[in-house]
Fold this sequence. Notes:
The complex is a heterodimer of chains A (about 290) and B (about 500). By secondary structure, chain A is α/β, with parallel strands linked by helices. Chain A contains 9 helices and 16 strands.
Amino acid sequence: MHRVLTNEQLSPNVYRLVVEAPRIAQIRKPGQFVIVYLGPGSERIPLTIADGDAEAGTISLVIQAVGKSTFDLVEVQPGESIAGIAGPLGKPTELPESGRVVCVGGGVGTAVILPIAQELARRGVEVTSIIGGRSREWVILEPDLAKCGEVVTCTDDGSYGRPGFVTEALKDAIDAGGIDEIFAVGPVPMMRAVVGLTKPAGVPTTVSLNPIMVDGTGMCGGCRVSIDGETRYACVEGPEFDGFSVDFNELADRLSTYRPFEQAALERRQACKVGLRTDTPDAQPAGTAGGAR
Amino acid sequence: MTADERPNPEERPTLTQKERMKLQRVAMPEQDAAARAVNFGEVNLGLTEELAILEAERCLMCPKPYCIDGCPVRVNIPNFIKLLREGDIKGAAASLSDDNALPCVTGRVCPQESQCEKACLRAKTGQSVAIGYLERYVADWANRHADEIARSPAARTGKSVGIVGSGPAGLTAAGELAKKGHDVTIFEAFHAPGGVLIYGIPEFRLPKDIVKSEVDRLVDAGVKIEANAIIGKTYTLPELRDRFDAVFIAVGAGLPVFMNVPGENYKGVYSANEYLTRVNLMGAWLQDADTPVLHGQRVVVVGGGNVAMDAVRTARRLGAESATIVYRRSRDELPARAEEVHHAEGEGVIFEYLAAPTEVIGDEDRWVTGVRCIRMELGEPDDSGRRRPEPIEGSEFEIPCDMLVVAIGTRSNPLLTQTAPDLEVSKWGYIVTDDHGMTSMPGVFAGGDIVRGAATVILAMGDGKTAAASIDSYLNGVWPPVVEEPPAPAEHKARAKPAPAATVTART
């Protein structure tokens, strides 16, 4: 059992849970994830380890409540427990030792960027984070990323920071030159748009994929993605891949497999509970019904 | 009639061998085919006491019991049958559980027709004794009366063993080692123990309550289980080796093999592992489960092993109007247990023999709409001794479907081995062991599918039992172990050979 120590709302539908997981806190590396199993009858939900404290024996999970399972998870209160957390899973991010890196985070993908930016800063790499949200209230983790370097915050409606999409800010940064590498994590359309800019510019780009998973250990094959036309398992061979090689259309398509089920499950849940807001533009189903990261 | 009301066996006349020979093999009572095709209740209902005693009377008590040689865990079959028919069900239960850590499981899923019952003398002239039915009867009685046969715990040895994986091999080894008084900890990657018994084999063939009670019995015997622990990720093998006096690796062959044909990533295409895990472990067959699974109306399952049968029969139960097996050889070569094939046929499963998929067809939304196949014919025998299927040019045809399950085998998972550079593995990633089940790392043993390639529950259990004996000897400082070498059944010898790249999943 893993006790939840804090549960903090970061945006209208994104929450940060700090949970006890001593072993994982001790050995986790940037880019890795866990599978969270709330309790009997629950889904297994893949979630990136957003942060951790090896001494305190805790990890942070940043969760976007979009489906029944993620709503259940963000309602766990401090003092309550999560039955199982398995990990750390996936390959750690391959990080440079020097140079200049831009980290692009969209929505809850910003939480995946955080441990990468933290480790890069620790190594002395110059980090610029470009993060965004629909409006001010949807921007998450800005203060955490600010500790790692420059942060460019974008809002679609211009209510905060730079008006427009993260890709526009990224384009300016690429045009200005001097970027050695880019890490981009967010909704599939965002990652596709980022690669649309970086590929012609020839700036190496790593993306973190969030396909459907059950076990997270290579056993089910549900997370298969096409990389340069070859089938790979994101859970054990990823979740990070060369952005230039990813078949984003297939990924987006496979993520939609259980959308009708998710909708029905959510409606059943909300019929008996006062629900939270679900009107996010980049909402994707969660857990085994779709990557929650 | 309960066990207590059983007629006094002394009042029953002892039969002559001639009279025993006249007794016909009893039939397993089973759920009606039409009813069971739409529910998840167990298909085989189990023998009544009357039928069990009647069947037990058929055993000739051969002076040389070949049936024992046919059993990978060497259950003393005549002994428990004798006790059963003498009215000593408790003694029968104790005898059985001495030899077999998971008798409720094996009584349900063993391919008896190719093991003990094949070796039964009566099979030569007619029908073998229904050893599997009797095993199940005795094991289920023991399960219901666990408190009556509880044994006193063994003296603690102070030695510890870490077991990786809680499938049939791991559970069997755990049971054997706990019996010897060793301190056993099992590491399981999933949130629930049981391995393939929990995620793979469906409820209608092996009720999950049965598996749970078998696991509970091990826990009661002092076995510790750490769930959500992935060796190779959460802990490395060298760490485990440092922490325990010995380690047994029984992780199975967990990676699904796909067909490598175009269209395989369309929506509606599952590996059998994913489909069965969603339905069984995650409970998607229940109405209110959080984990979804597609309910195909026209389902095609590719493969001819027990896993394929499990998948196709599951699809039927989840409402498929048509559920079709596509298999590249003919009925005679099906690797599945005869009973599974018989049950599937009874439930209306369609068998498309001598056909192999060449492409998965999808619509503009990339949902699967069918599978293109090519007709096969059987040529010369291949390495496995079975006739090699060869495509017939120009014979392509299409089977429409809205869900496709690929059940053509599994291969080794590198998660554990890649963090253990000193562990010798074959070209295909299977762990290499010596005759006693020890790997290239002293004190680290391995068995089950990760050594032999995808095989059956009972062969994995046999490995678990053999390894436990070796480990016990190793912990006692007797190495190499002094073991009575039983005449190994044919399948057992396969262990010496390196496992092939991928093996068709004749799992149980």
